[in-house]
Automatic annotation (TrEMBL):
Domain of life of the native organism: Bacteria
SUPFAM superfamilies, alphabetized: UDP-Glycosyltransferase/glycogen phosphorylase
Organism of provenance: Terrabacter tumescens
Protein name stated in the entry: D-inositol 3-phosphate glycosyltransferase
Length: 367
């Protein structure tokens, strides 16, 4: 009988791509509960499964809970209550550590406490890179199974040829300014380097909310600077709402280089998408990006301590290297399909193992 997994969340592209490409899997995943809050552009958030009451009410509907994302606003005490409820019902907990530092939190304390509850309680811990696994072992004494990130872009786009474009296009996407992002110093450094790169130009994208005065998310320090640089002809400024997937893939393939303007971080789905599409990434040395996929690292002054990119050169040198060498790092579709199949099989085995371990120790008596 197929185990039923309560994935937190289920609808995220990462979790959807844990299933094999042909869909033949021994695993069933519950759909995300309808959120109890009206949150635009996030159908699964906040995740209703991360409530002790939900576990108590639905314990007979799933076999394993697997937490990925979405616990940003759940207190450590409430997470402990979820863990306790899982234990009462004999339900194993699997945790995949995607972020060792939450990109939405300006300070690390809350996320550290949340992860501490989940990682210590987990029946199995997974993560995406060897560097992250080593940090998990150092911080919590837990051995994490390293399983790579599956592809993000789907067929037929995964196999389509890149459309040629004129010049050398560098892109920085400010999106809606997560706490981890500090795009202005990155943009200014690129602008200063452009004279060394004949034919190169900088495209800067930002979402409408951060560029609109009066909007609650307006970036009062960033918006006028970007307008001024655009008026001076030093950047190509594009202001728009969230891209659809197809629009995002078109955007990424319009770039030769995508520069990630992060002050801190761990792994990146954006990097995976660029790898799928053949766009070179310049990533900061504050996370495990170079462990994850091929990219060029640059040093971020004043950022979190460098990890996989210890001693990375300044951004200017990374830009010159990308311009000079024109790396052609692109995923091979057939290899991505094989990788996804292996990722699916690994997860099936993890679920089987934790269920066997729970069966061996027995379900606690709740009477």
């Amino acid at each position: 009988m197929s185990p039923v997994i309560a994935s937190v969340p289920s609808g995220h592209v990462y979790v959807r791509h844990l299933a094999p490409p042909d869909g033949e899997t021994t695993v069933l995943r519950l759909p995300d509960p309808r959120p109890r809050a009206d949150v635009p552009d996030a159908q699964w958030w906040p995740p209703g499964m991360l409530e002790a009451g939900w576990v108590d009410e639905h314990a007979d509907e799933f076999d394993v809970m697997h937490v990925h994302f979405g616990f940003d606003a759940v207190s450590p005490d409430d997470l402990a209550d979820v863990v306790a409820s899982l234990r009462r019902h004999g339900k194993p907990l699997v945790v995949t550590v995607h972020d060792l530092r939450n990109p939405h939190h300006p300070e690390p304390g809350l996320h550290d406490a949340q992860l501490g509850v989940l990682v210590r309680a987990a029946d199995a811990v997974l993560t995406l890179t060897a560097g992250a696994a080593a940090e998990i072992a150092a911080r919590w004494g837990r051995e994490a199974l390293v399983v790579p990130h599956p592809h993000v872009v789907e067929e037929p786009r995964l196999s389509q040829e890149r459309v040629p474009h004129a010049g050398f296009v560098i892109g920085v996407h400010a999106k809606s300014l997560r706490a981890s992002m500090d795009p202005l110093p990155v943009i200014e450094e690129i602008v200063a380097t452009l004279p060394e790169l004949p034919g190169a130009r900088l495209r800067v994208d930002a979402h409408t909310d951060v560029m609109t005065p009066g909007n609650p998310r307006h970036a009062a320090d960033l918006e006028p600077c970007l307008r001024r640089l655009a008026d001076d002809g030093r950047i190509e400024l594009h202001v728009h709402d969230y891209f659809t997937d197809d629009e995002l893939w078109d955007y990424l393939q319009s770039l030769d280089v995508s520069v990630l303007p992060y002050r801190f971080g761990t792994h990146s789905g954006w990097l995976e998408a660029c790898y799928d599409l053949g766009t070179t990434v310049l990533a900061p040395d504050c996370g495990y990006y170079a462990d994850q996929r091929p990219c060029i690292l640059y040093g971020v002054p004043g950022s979190a301590p460098a990890r996989s990119g210890a001693g990375a050169p300044p951004l200017r040198e990374g830009l010159v290297r990308a311009y000079r060498d024109r790396p052609t790092w692109r995923a091979v579709p057939e290899e991505r399909r094989r990788e996804r199949l292996e990722i699916s099989r690994v997860h099936e085995q993890v679920y089987a193992d934790v269920l066997a371990a729970v069966a061996k120790r027995g379900v606690p008596c709740t009477s």
